[in-house]
Amino acid sequence: MILTRQFEEVLPLLQRGEIGAIPTETVYGLAGNALNGEAVAKIFEAKNRPHFDPLICHVGSIEQIAKYTLDFPDILKKLAEKYWPGPLTLLLPKNSLLPDLVTSGSSLVAFRIPAHEITRKLLNALDFPLAAPSANPFGYISPTRAEHVAEQLGDRISFILDGGPCAVGIESTIVGLEEDEVFIYRQGGISQEQISALTGPLNQKLSLEHPELLRGAPSSPGLLKSHYAPRKPLYLGQIEKMLPHFDPRRIGVLTYRRLVKGVDRERQLMLSIQGDLREAATRLFECMRELDKREDVDFILAEKVPSFGLGLGINDRLQRAAVKD
Ligand code: TXA
Ligand code: MG
């Protein structure tokens, strides 16, 4: 496995169908040639990802998208022009150039232009889009540093392009149209308010993170439960109410911006002392990882952050990470 900061080194690897990690402003992606069915299959395999969960395609410019789509509705184009490059993914009708495996058989394909300099240079030097889900084993916390990828997927991929820590820290917001109405399918790095400022009122849908649920196939509660999850049980709620049920010497605490009484300071992490949701998003996955790794922690108790702006995306990840009762 090659670990490098030079995109030129990974170009030939991607060109011959190999897969590896690339930095984006949201999280690291596990990338391969989206037009090459074998490369796409390798991505699913390395992540252990079920084939019903489609991949996002990454390109360097809006012009490239026209090659692979049938249409780019005006309202989505307006969002693209305002927020790309950036943490926004748009669902567009695909043509037949992209293998069906990329979209898990859907007639829509997810596209985004990431805002990370090295990766944009890489994308602009390639003549194909990069399919890239987050570079974590399926169900585990997404990686926001090259080291996170190396720890978990290092032996399954050809390279890691190290672009430093991710600036946004949670995944992109996924937006699409249904009968001309705008829907948000996943909250993320562009806030709901930023979207509705351009589109007007929005609709929300059960996230397509688990499209099999939408299609009415048998649900997979086990998979659902473990999405974005640490290995240790994470409980989300009012920390003071949960505390009496645990041995305070064995828990880790994750708060927005405060300390909790009755738990050692060193087992408490705050997402943002300043109360800054941007900082909280950047630190979220890293803090979960840290508590997950600590040997003196068996359970994680966490609380929600304020639910506006990036807070909606953060709370969504916390909820998915949490044990459901
Ligand atoms: O920020 C991000 O979006 C990161 C970076 C690497 O770009 N990528 C990412 O990919 O989060 P992933 O695979 O972890 O999440 C992709 C999700 C799928 O689970 C699904 O919910 C949605 O995007 N998706 C992708 N293609 C879709 C499609 N054709 N139709 C509906 N949903 C789709
Ligand atoms: Mg993911």
3D architecture notes:
By secondary structure, the chain is α/β, with parallel strands linked by helices. 33% of the residues lie in helices and 18% in strands. It has helices at residues 7-15, 37-47, 62-66, 74-83, 100-103, 117-125, 146-153, 192-199, 211-214, 221-225, 239-242, 277-293, 310-321; strands at 2-4, 20-22, 29-33, 56-58, 88-93, 108-112, 130-131, 159-161, 173-178, 181-186, 203-204, 234-236, 251-255, 268-270, 299-302.
Features:
alpha/beta, binds magnesium ion, 325 residues, globular, 13 helices, four-stranded parallel sheet, binds threonylcarbamoyladenylate, 15 strands
Task: Draw up the topology in text.
Elements: E1 2-4, H1 7-15, E2 20-22, E3 29-33, H2 37-47, E4 56-58, H3 62-66, H4 74-83, E5 88-93, H5 100-103, E6 108-112, H6 117-125, E7 130-131, H7 146-153, E8 159-161, E9 173-178, E10 181-186, H8 192-199, E11 203-204, H9 211-214, H10 221-225, E12 234-236, H11 239-242, E13 251-255, E14 268-270, H12 277-293, E15 299-302, H13 310-321
Parallel strand pairs: 1-8, 2-8, 4-6, 5-9, 10-11, 12-15, 13-14, 13-15
Antiparallel strand pairs: 2-3, 3-7, 4-7, 5-6, 9-10
Bound molecules: threonylcarbamoyladenylate and magnesium ion.
Threonylcarbamoyladenylate binds at residues 24, 26-27, 29, 53-56, 87, 89, 91, 103, 106, 108-110, 114, 132-134, 171-172, 174, 186, 208-209.
